[in-house]
Amino acid sequence: MPIGNGNANAIFTRTIKFGDALSPTLALNYSLGQADDESAKIRFGDATVIIDANGGADDNFALITITLERWDENGDALADITYALSGVAAAGKVAWAGSDGAGWTGKAATLKEAIDMLEEIPGLQAFTLHAPHSMSLGSDNFIDLAETDIETQPGDYTECLYRDISEFKVDSDLVAYMRFGLPELRDAGSMRLVGLNGTMTGHTNGTVRIYQDDLRKYGDEYNATYATEIANKQLFLDETAVAAETNYLDKDISNAGTIQGPIILEVKSDDITVIAMTLRLIQANL
């Protein structure tokens, strides 16, 4: 299987668009290997995920349910183990409570908190896709997902937790996100921003921003108000949104500044209906 980024001088292009099915925010993967303290008489099978946009315990916010299947040494099915993670509006993370027999419940206010808790489930891996780690789970504006098998290692990750893009708001504004990192979305490889151009419909009070969103730098400032959070993050671009075809960034390869990812391209306005913008980057030379 090919790995790596290829030609360091090649230009990478990514296009941000606005639609319910275009921007998953959560990636999940499951390992069928033996879990800690697992009995030799019990083996785990598949894992599944269900997302109920308004099924959570607090104000009917998002509910993410993970189910682990189990069998005994004779191949007979045992009771599944369930983990039900509810969104909560404010800082109010609640650790897992319960038992394998009765099921586990917990609460998370942000995507980062949810990922931390999901990775406490034996065999489960999770990371953030097209959203900042501070994205609130205190909302019912997500898309329902019927029970779906979670991909197992070394397969692909299952992409899920899609936002209802026309309803999900940040500071009363609609928002589109696109994450980019090298070599993968979650990685912090160095890159150079070459260009960003495109169009949008619905740009009143709109902004176009590129900022770093590194998991390792997640802290209290990411739990503040949106304005404070943006002020605390490393901004690489902060421009007023325009409807017509616009070059928000246009650099020659020879003078494009080097930045460290991963980055978020965020387009935000109170009346977005269509976005078609293309981001161009190159891998920074070592």
Explain this structure.
- The mean pLDDT is 87.
- The protein has one domain.
- The longest helix has 8 residues, at 111-118.
- It is mainly beta.
- It has a six-stranded mixed sheet with strand order 6-7-5-4-3-9, with helices on one face. Strands 1, 13, 16, 17 and 19 form a five-stranded antiparallel sheet that branches.
- It is globular, with a radius of gyration of 20 Å.
- It has helices spanning 111-118, 226-232; strands at 11-17, 24-30, 42-52, 63-72, 77-87, 94-99, 103-108, 124-128, 145-149, 158-162, 169-170, 173-180, 190-201, 207-212, 235-240, 246-250, 258-260, 263-269, 274-283.
Poorly predicted runs of 5 or more residues: none
Average of the residue pLDDT scores: 87
For the report, how would you describe the main beta sheet? 6 strands, mixed
| Helix-strand topology string | EEEEEEEHEEEEEEEHEEEEE
Number of domains: 1
Radius of gyration, CA atoms, in whole angstroms? 20 Å
Strand order of the largest sheet: 6-7-5-4-3-9
Instruction: Please report which band the strand proportion falls in: under 5%, 5-15%, 15-25%, 25-35%, 35-45% or over 45%.
Output: over 45%
β-strand number: 19
Compute the number of helices. 2
